[in-house]
Amino acid sequence: MRRRLRRNCRDGNRLQLGGWVIGGTARQMATEQSRAEVVAALTSICLEQSKWDPQRAERVALLKAACPTSVAIS
What 3-state class would DSSP assign to 10? Predict the structure, then answer.
């Protein structure tokens, strides 16, 4: 019974049992979610502000040189 319980409680690095998680795991999950929300909220603002950067052309050229096979940068 104990082995089965231990095996069923693991979800990646998060310890859970029947939908409940331990305090440390809950804090970690909340931190990860809040960071993702902040990034999502600020990305559109940063992209819009970058359009008005007087050094935009030089910065884009540096990014393209650093990541030649990466996603298209415009």
Answer: strand
